[in-house]
């Protein structure tokens, strides 16, 4: 392990990419501690003591919302904009055509996503600031409100830019890494608070040990979910070209149990957070009812959360994996699945198997997402947010980043970060 890490920093290009990512994450964490002008910090802290959906907002903001810093909106506006663009690609042919135009189409979609991010951040900033003003958290005054809105929108644009810089010049997905950094940064504080309660007797040692056991089981389940796959055997026919024989080998098509990674968790959480933001425009019973219904502990939130995770798992799997293209490529190069005719029957078979595998992965993903939250509520541990959302994001982003680093090392004839035994690259599969 340590020799592999040493090999990482022996490669100038990979070393510079990793150091660049660390530098961007440092800037992101510094921005999370710069307060927004005109906000009463003590009044803001008292709001979070009441719990509710604000804690889930703060999870994606990496603690910036609790401090109401310039990055208080976090990556939520960018995620909402990405969801809208991907949904539009399904229902609007022009956007779908744009996706298939290669690099030029990708640039157009990125530009539209940026514009949508500004619109979403403006809506969320106005709603949040007006709500906080009604709660006497922001100092009364038109200038203070305007400055707070502009600051939040500018901070959201800066977070989007930081994420894109990581994706373009670093390692891994930039937005996912920003969320990962925000969650991990809260761990030391949570551990300290937990041990304080344990020392004062407010927390039972047996309860804490039970929570740790649950945490280990959930992390193991997340790893199995991320690494598991169904392999479809593929046989290539022999072809004689001149005096040489090509093909004849047997390989497989890997269908991942969770092809969407942590995207369904992030998308589902963001969709459920957006109505609460809109409700901040209104005062009285309506806003309170919406906030109560969409509280992370409410039954309605749990049901909608599970359904959205399953939906986005299927949706994102359909975006990243096209059975018809795989079947056409197999037919083009003389490959076939034993017992299945090439062409359309192969595409139908792959789609059928993929649908079943994805269903199991989506249900397991939803179970891991809500089970820890339910158990920790039953155990009464409030010092840290040990939800399936946080665990899945941390484990998923960590695995994806390590795999990308391993791919860079293998391209340069180095071994991966973790030595594993077995075939097919030595990666653990189900």
TrEMBL record:
Keyword Nucleotide-binding attached: no
Localization: Cell inner membrane; Membrane
Keyword Ribosomal protein attributed: no
Alphabetical keyword list: Cell inner membrane, Cell membrane, Membrane, Protein transport, Translocation, Transmembrane, Transmembrane helix, Transport
Membrane-spanning segments: 69-92, 112-132, 138-163, 170-188, 203-225, 262-282, 302-322, 353-375, 381-402
Protein task: The central subunit of the protein translocation channel SecYEG. Consists of two halves formed by TMs 1-5 and 6-10. These two domains form a lateral gate at the front which open onto the bilayer between TMs 2 and 7, and are clamped together by SecE at the back. The channel is closed by both a pore ring composed of hydrophobic SecY resides and a short helix (helix 2A) on the extracellular side of the membrane which forms a plug. The plug probably moves laterally to allow the channel to open. The ring and the pore may move independently.
Assembly, per entry: Component of the Sec protein translocase complex. Heterotrimer consisting of SecY, SecE and SecG subunits. The heterotrimers can form oligomers, although 1 heterotrimer is thought to be able to translocate proteins. Interacts with the ribosome. Interacts with SecDF, and other proteins may be involved. Interacts with SecA.
This protein's name: Protein translocase subunit SecY
